[in-house]
C-alpha cells in the first residue's frame, strides 16, 4: 500500500479546511496499476469517517444515490467526506460516458447536501477520463515499471482482441464466439473455453464454465489499445448481433438467450462505434429490444456535440430530460411509443408495438406537445389547467380549460379557453371557446374530485398527480401509469385514462398495474442527461422570409390576416433613401402590432411615417454623457411606433432602427434593417406563445432563439434592448398568460 507522506497529508488537510465555494475535487491521478485505489484506502485509514465508494461498474446515478443516502444517514451537523475509487471504470459498458459524468458533473457539483458540507476525493486514470483541473490539490502517482508484454500467437491475440472489443466486462462464451467469427476467426465454444482456462493469467471463467472475463479492467483496456477495432469491425459485429437477435424469434423470447441479453445491453453502443446508430434507432423492433441505459450511453457516444434537432435520437434524450427512469423494459418501450406518436413518427410507433415487448400501458391518442420542437405544433391542445367530464349525445366528453387571465398583478381580466374532446378518439368535439369562468365556477358538475350526480351518470374517476405520485379519488379502480411532472391530473372514463397537464392531454389504456412501480419520477435527472441537444436550425419559414420569400405571409401568420399595411410609392417620405427599407414597406408592409413585447405599431393612412427630430438630452445631464445624445447619422428619422416605452425610429438614410430611450439617449442599433428587426420580433413571438413544460426544452429553445437572432443581426442581438428581451424579461402583455409556468423551469 502506498504511503501518504507528510506533505501530501498537509495538502489534504488544507483542502478540507477550504470554504465549500472554493473546494474542488481532490484528485488522485495516475496510470493503471499505479496504486490509486490503494492510496484512497490509505486516506480512509487516516480519515475513517470518510465513505469509500468503489465506482467500478456503477452508473453516475447509482453513485449519486449512494452519496445522497450516506449524507442522510450521517450524524447531524457532521460534514460528509467521500473517496471515489475507480471513477475511470464507472458504467455498465466499457465505452461509457459514466466516468465523465462522475468526474465532470457529479463529483465537482456535490459540494453541499441539504445544508451539510461535502468533500470529494476521487481517483482518475487520465488515459480513460480526464480529471477537472484542481491546482495544487491533487496527487500524481508515478507509473509502475513497464511489464514485458508476453508474445502471443497471432490467432490467440486475435481471439483476445475480439473479447476485449466486447462492451460488457463478462460475456457468455457464445458471445465471444460471435465476436471472433465477425472478425474472421472461426471457433467453437469448446475451443474458446480451452483457451480461457489455459490463459488463466489473463482470463477468468465462471463456475458454470459459460462466461469469461479479463482478470482486471486494466488488462482489458490494455488489450483494447493493443488490438483496437475500427468502424468496419464494429459494423460486422452489429450485423452479426442483429441477425442473431432476429433469428431468435419475435419479441423478447430471444432476450432469454445469452446473445439476446448481450445485444439488449451492448448492441446500441456497437452501432454507435460503427457510425450506424441512426439506422438502429429508426428500427422500432430493434430499438424495443435495447435497454434504456444502453440507448442513452450509445447516443452520448454517437453525438458528442448533441443530438440532432427533431431526430429519433432526440426522443430518448428528452425522455431522460423529463426525469423518466423506467423500471422495466415494457415501461421504457411504452414511453418510446408515446413519444414517437407525439412526434408524428407513426411508422416507428407501430414498429415498437410490433416488437412483442409486453407493455404495461400504451398511448391510444395524444395531443401532448413533443419536447425539442420550436414553435407551435399542429393539433396541440395547449396547457390544461382544469379537467372535467360532461355529457354529449354520443356519450361522455372530456372538457379542458386553460387559464388565460391577463393583468394578474394589477387588474385581472378573467378569461379561459374551454374545449371538449371525444375520450375514445381524442378528436375535438367542439372548437375552443373563450369563457369568463373556470370549470368550477361555470357550472360543470363533473370536475376534479366531484362525483357526477345522478344514478345513470357514466363511471368517472379523477386523480391528481403530485411529487409523491398519483393521488386517486375514492372511485378509482386502476391507477394511471407513472408520469413526468408535467402531467398534473387525469380522469378515468370509458375504460381509459385521459391525462392532462402543462403540455396538453393524451389517453392511455392500462394493461396491468399490479406489482408495477408507482414511485414518482424525479422532476429532472438525478445527475444530468447523458448528452445535450445540438443547436437547433433556424426554422425554414424564417430562412425563406429572410431571403425575401413569403415575409408578409409569415408575419401575418402570427400577427393576424391583413395586419401588414403596404405603403404606396407616393406614401413613402422623400427622405427615405435606403432601398431595403423602401422595398419592405412597399412589398411586405408595416405590421400592425399592439400589446406584445411592449411593441406598438399602428400605421396611419395619412402620414404613415411622420418625420421627427433626433431627441436631445434635457438639462442636468453630465457633460461627459452628452455625446451619447448625438444622432447616429444625418437622418432624417421617422417614427414607426413605440417599443418598451420609447419611440422606435427609422433612420431614412441607412434603414437602421433605434430606440429613443427616455432622455434622448439612443439605444444602439435595434435592428440593422426592417426585415431583420421584424424577423427577430416574429421569432420571439413564436417562442413566447409556445408552451415549454420542461426546463431543458425551454432552455434549448431560448438558447436557439438567441443564436438565431445573432445570426440574423449580431449587432442588434447583443445590444441592450435585445439582450433584455432574449434573457427572458417577463413582459406582461397579451402573451404573458401563454408562457410556460416559471416553477417548471427551476
Describe this structure in words.
It holds the Pfam family SUKH-4. InterPro entries: SUKH-4. Residues 610-633 are annotated as: Disordered. Residues 616-626 have a biased composition (Basic residues). It comes from Streptomyces enissocaesilis. This protein has 746 residues and is α+β, with helices and mostly antiparallel strands. It folds into four domains: 6-140, Rossmann fold, CATH 3.40.50; 154-363, no CATH class; 364-510, no CATH class; 535-619 and 627-746, no CATH class. Helix content is 33%, strand content 19%. Strands 23, 24, 25, 26, 27, 28 and 29 form a seven-stranded antiparallel sheet that branches. Strands 1, 2, 3, 4, 5 and 6 form a six-stranded mixed sheet that branches. A hairpin with a 2-residue loop joins strand 18 (487-493) and strand 19. It is globular, with a radius of gyration of 31 Å.
Structural class: alpha+beta
**Largest sheet at a glance?**
7 strands, antiparallel
Describe the global form.
Answer: globular
Share in β-strands: 15-25%
Proportion in helices: 25-40%
Strand tally is: 29
Whole-number count of domains: 4
For the terminal residues, how far apart are their CA atoms?
46 Å
Spans of at least 5 consecutive residues with low confidence:
249-254, 618-628, 736-746
Total count of helical runs of at least 4 residues: 23
Mean pLDDT: 87
Radius of gyration: 31 Å
Amino acid at each position: 500500500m502506498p504511503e501518504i507522506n507528510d506533505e501530501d497529508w498537509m495538502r489534504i488537510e488544507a483542502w478540507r479546511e477550504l470554504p465549500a465555494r472554493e473546494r474542488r475535487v481532490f484528485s488522485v491521478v495516475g496510470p493503471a496499476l499505479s496504486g490509486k485505489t490503494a492510496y484512497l484506502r490509505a486516506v480512509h485509514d487516516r480519515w475513517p469517517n470518510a465513505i469509500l465508494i468503489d465506482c467500478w461498474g456503477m452508473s453516475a446515478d447509482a453513485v449519486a444515490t449512494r452519496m445522497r443516502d450516506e449524507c442522510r444517514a450521517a450524524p447531524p451537523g457532521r460534514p460528509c467526506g467521500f473517496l471515489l475509487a475507480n471513477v475511470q471504470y464507472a458504467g455498465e459498458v466499457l465505452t461509457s460516458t459514466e466516468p465523465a459524468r462522475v468526474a465532470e458533473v457529479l463529483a465537482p457539483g456535490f459540494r453541499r447536501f441539504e445544508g451539510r458540507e461535502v468533500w470529494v476525493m476521487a481517483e482518475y486514470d487520465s488515459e480513460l477520463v480526464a480529471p477537472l483541473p484542481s491546482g495544487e490539490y491533487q496527487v500524481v502517482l508515478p507509473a509502475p515499471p513497464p511489464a514485458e508484454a508476453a508474445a502471443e500467437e497471432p490467432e490467440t491475440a486475435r481471439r483476445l482482441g475480439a473479447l476485449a472489443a466486447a462492451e460488457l466486462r463478462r460475456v457468455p462464451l457464445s458471445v465471444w464466439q460471435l465476436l471472433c467469427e465477425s472478425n474472421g476467426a472461426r471457433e467453437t465454444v469448446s475451443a474458446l473455453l480451452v483457451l480461457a482456462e489455459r490463459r488463466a493469467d489473463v482470463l477468468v471463467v465462471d463456475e458454470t464454465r459459460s462466461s469469461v472475463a479479463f482478470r482486471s479492467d486494466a488488462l482489458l483496456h490494455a488489450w483494447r489499445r493493443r488490438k483496437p477495432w475500427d468502424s468496419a469491425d464494429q459494423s460486422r459485429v452489429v450485423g452479426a448481433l442483429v441477425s442473431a437477435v432476429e433469428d431468435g424469434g419475435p419479441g423478447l423470447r430471444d432476450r432469454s438467450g445469452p446473445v439476446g441479453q448481450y445485444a439488449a445491453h451492448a448492441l446500441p453502443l456497437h452501432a454507435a462505434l460503427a457510425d450506424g446508430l441512426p439506422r438502429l434507432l429508426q428500427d422500432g423492433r430493434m430499438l424495443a429490444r435495447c435497454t434504456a441505459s444502453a440507448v442513452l450511453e450509445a447516443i452520448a457516444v454517437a453525438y458528442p456535440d448533441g443530438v440532432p434537432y427533431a431526430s429519433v435520437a432526440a426522443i430518448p434524450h428528452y425522455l431522460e430530460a423529463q426525469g423518466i427512469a423506467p423500471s422495466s423494459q415494457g415501461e421504457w418501450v411504452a414511453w418510446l411509443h408515446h413519444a414517437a406518436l407525439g412526434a408524428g413518427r407513426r411508422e416507428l410507433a407501430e414498429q415498437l408495438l410490433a416488437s412483442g415487448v409486453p407493455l404495461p400501458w400504451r398511448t391510444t391518442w395524444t395531443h401532448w406537445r413533443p419536447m425539442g420542437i420550436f414553435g407551435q405544433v399542429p393539433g396541440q391542445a395547449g396547457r390544461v389547467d382544469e379537467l372535467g367530464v360532461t355529457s354529449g349525445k354520443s356519450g361522455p366528453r372530456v372538457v379542458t380549460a386553460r387559464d388565460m387571465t391577463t393583468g394578474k398583478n394589477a387588474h385581472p381580466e378573467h378569461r379561459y379557453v374551454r374545449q371538449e374532446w371525444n375520450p375514445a378518439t381524442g378528436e375535438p368535439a367542439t372548437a375552443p371557446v373563450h369563457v369568463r369562468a373556470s370549470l368550477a365556477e361555470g357550472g360543470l358538475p363533473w370536475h376534479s374530485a366531484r362525483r357526477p350526480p345522478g344514478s345513470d351518470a357514466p363511471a368517472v374517476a379523477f386523480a391528481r398527480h403530485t411529487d409523491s405520485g398519483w393521488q386517486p379519488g375514492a372511485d378509482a379502480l386502476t391507477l394511471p401509469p407513472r408520469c413526468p411532472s408535467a402531467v398534473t391530473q387525469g380522469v378515468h372514463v370509458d375504460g381509459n385514462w385521459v391525462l392532462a397537464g402543462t403540455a396538453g392531454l393524451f389517453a392511455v389504456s392500462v394493461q396491468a398495474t399490479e406489482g408495477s412501480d408507482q414511485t414518482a419520477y424525479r422532476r429532472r435527472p438525478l445527475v444530468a442527461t447523458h448528452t445535450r441537444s445540438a443547436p437547433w436550425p433556424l426554422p425554414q419559414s424564417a430562412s425563406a422570409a429572410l431571403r425575401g420569400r413569403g415575409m408578409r405571409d409569415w408575419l401575418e401568420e402570427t400577427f393576424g390576416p391583413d395586419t401588414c399595411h403596404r405603403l404606396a410609392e407616393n406614401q413613402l417620405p422623400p427622405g427615405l433613401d435606403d432601398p431595403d427599407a423602401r422595398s419592405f414597406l412597399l412589398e411586405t408592409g408595416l405590421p400592425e402590432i399592439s400589446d406584445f413585447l411592449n411593441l406598438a405599431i399602428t400605421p396611419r393612412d395619412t402620414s404613415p411615417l411622420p418625420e421627427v427630430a433626433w431627441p436631445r438630452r434635457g438639462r442636468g445631464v453630465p457633460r461627459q454623457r452628452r455625446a451619447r445624445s448625438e444622432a447616429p447619422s444625418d437622418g432624417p428619422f421617422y417614427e414607426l411606433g413605440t417599443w418598451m416605452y420609447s419611440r422606435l425610429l427609422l433612420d431614412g438614410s441607412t434603414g437602421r432602427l433605434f430606440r429613443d430611450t427616455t432622455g434622448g439617449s439612443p439605444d444602439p442599433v435595434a435592428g440593422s434593417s426592417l426585415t431583420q428587426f421584424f424577423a427577430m420580433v416574429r421569432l420571439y413571438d413564436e417562442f413566447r406563445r409556445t408552451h415549454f413544460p420542461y426546463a431543458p426544452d425551454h432552455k434549448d429553445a431560448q438558447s436557439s432563439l438567441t443564436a438565431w437572432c445573432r445570426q440574423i443581426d449580431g449587432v442588434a442581438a447583443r445590444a441592450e434592448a435585445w439582450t433584455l428581451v432574449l434573457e427572458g424579461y417577463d413582459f406582461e402583455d397579451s402573451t404573458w398568460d401563454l408562457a410556460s409556468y416559471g416553477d417548471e423551469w427551476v
